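Researcher: First entry.
Model:
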Amino acid sequence: LVGPTQTYQVQTSPSGQFNLTCVESGAYTVVAGQWGYLPGTATVSANGNVTVQIGRGYYDDFLLDLGWTNSSNASSGDWIRDEPVGTFNNNEYANPDQDVLFDDNDKCYTTGNEGGGAGSDDIDNGSVTLTTPEMKLADYQDGILSFWYWFYNGGGNGGTPNDKLVVEALSNGQTVPVFTQTVSQSGWRFSGDIHLKDFVAMSDNVQVQFVAADDAPGHVVEAGVDVFQVIPTGFTSVQPDLVNDAKLLLSPNPSATEFAVRYSWPVDENVVLEVRNLLGQIVTTQVLGANNGIVQVGAAWPQGVYLLSLHSATRQGIAVKAVKQ
C-alpha cells in the first residue's frame, strides 16, 4: 500500500485476505501480485475494504518479492532486489543509479549494490545467477520472453574487458542460452522478443536465469534486470472462450508516435479493442465498428510497454505487445 508519506507491505492469507493495523489515515494505492499473475491495482482509504483483481501471466517489475532465487560462486557482486545505488567508472555509471523509469517503482535486481567505488561490490572471480520461479507453459505453443537489462564491463586488470551476461532457459532438465551480451553500455537496454519455443520444450517447469560472470583477468562488471515478462501464446488445449484466429498486427512496433493496428475478428459479433499497461490497468477500450479494419492508437501514451487484445462478451483473443518509445 503506497500512501502520501508511508508505504506498507503485507503478505495475504492463502485465501487472499489481509489486514493492516495502525495505518496512517489517507488514500492508498494498493498493488497486489503473485507469481503466475499480472499485478493488479486499486485504491483504498485507511480502515476501508478493497478487492484487487489479478489476471494470469508472468510479469515482474520487482516492487514485490515474488520468489526469485540467486546463487553465486563469485567473491562479491551477488544479485540483490533493491533500489540501485550508482557507482562510477571513468565518469560513467558502472552500477545503475535508477531502475527502468516507466514501471512506477524504484526497484530492480542488480549485481552488488553497496555503492562506493566501481570495483567495491561488482562481480569478482566468478559468476552470479538469478533464477525465476517455475512457469507453467505446457498448455501453450510458445512463451514470448522480454526484459530490460543493464550490462557494464570496463576497467580492471588490463586488456580488453571480456565478461558477459548470459540469459538461459531451463525446461525438463535442459538448460539453453537464449540471449548473450558482451558489449558494455552505461544504460538500460531492451532485450527484444525471445520465443522460448525456439530453445526449450514448453513444460510446466520452465524457468529463466540471468548469469553474469567476471572472467579472468578481472574487470569491473555489473548487471541488472527489470520489467521481466513472459507472454504465453497459442493454447494447445481446447479453450472455448479463446479465439485463436483473431488477428492484431501493429506497425510500427516499437513506435515513438502512434501505432496502426490492423485487426481481424472472425466471429460475427461486436468486438472491443482493449489496451492494458504492465500493471494490468486498462489504458483504453474502443468498440470497433467492423470485424476487420485499421485503427490508430497510442499517440498520447507515455513511454512503456502495453498489451493489446480483442474481446467480445464471451470470447477473448491473444494479447499482443506494443512498445512505446
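Researcher: Second entry.
Model:
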Amino acid sequence: MSNSVRLAPAILLLALSSLTLASIPLPDGPAPPPIDSRENPSPFLLTATSVRGWITGPVAHVEVTQSWENPNQDPVDGLYIFPLPESAAVTDLKLVIGQRVIQGEMKRREEARQAFEAARREGRVAGLLDQERPNIFAQRVANLSPGERIQVVISMDHEVRCEGSQCEYLFPTVVGPRFIPARQNEPGAIDPPVVAPGQRTQQRFTLALDLEAGVPIQALESPSHAISTVKQGRGVQRISLSGGAREILNRDFRLRWQVGGEKPEVAVMAWRDPRRSADPGVFTLILQPPVGPSEEEAAPRELVFVLDCSGSMMGVPLEA
C-alpha cells in the first residue's frame, strides 16, 4: 500500500469495469431501494467515518477511520474524495483487513500511483491517498472483494487557530460543488457528481475529542453540531456528538472555546515520545493574557522597526 502525501471526509466513487458512480451524503430522504448488485452495482462503499482527536494546547492530533464494505457480488475499486484543513499534515496511513494491518509508505506522486496501479492489476488489495488540492484529498482502494470489510486509518497533525482568547477547531467533512475550468484534467477527482434527489448514502459520522487547553476553559460550544462534554480530569474535556452514529457528513464540525479570564494564566505542557523514552521531549509555554485589560493595566511599549536597505533588498523586497 502506498500514498502520496497528507487527509478528512465527504464523497465516494465506485468503479466497476467501465462504470463510474459517485455520491455525496445528503441530510434527509429515503435510502435507495434494494438493487441487483450484478445489474446495478451499489456505489455506496464507504459506510462510516470515525474521528478521534486529541487537542493539546495549540496542536491537534487526529485519527480518521474510514470503514469500507463491498455489498456487490463482484470485486470493485473505490474512490473517496474528502477535505482536510490546509494546515494539516498526514503522519501515518494504514489499511486494516480483519487482523491484518498494511502500513502505508510515503512516496512521490508518480511513484506512488505506479505502485498502486501495479498492485491493482495484480488483483491485490491496495490503497492510495493522494493530495488533489491544498485541502482536497482522494482515497483510492483497489480490489475490494464481495462482502469484504476494510478500514483505512489516517493520522494527521495540524495547528489550532486562536485569536486573542478565542480558539476554534474545525474538521471539514464536505467537498461542495465548484467551478471547474475547461482545461481541468480529471475534474471528477475534485468535483464528483452528487447523488440523485431524494437519496442518501447511509454513511455515518462519529467524532470524539479530548481537549486540554493548558489553561482554564471559560466557555465551550459548537455552532455546527449538538455536543456532549464530560470532564476527564487534569483539565481535559471529552467532547462527542450528541447525535451519535445518526450524524451524517453534510456540514463541517466546529468547536469553539475561550481561554482568557479576568487574570493572566501561565501553563507548561510537556511531551515525550513514549516509544523513545531516552530521547529529549518538547514543551509548550502558554502565556494567556486576561480578556479586555484596561488602559491602566497595559504597560506602555516602545516599538523599533529596522529596514534592511542593502543592495540585496533593492526593488520588490524593499517596496514590500
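Model: Note on the second entry: Confidence is low (pLDDT under 50) at residues 1-38.
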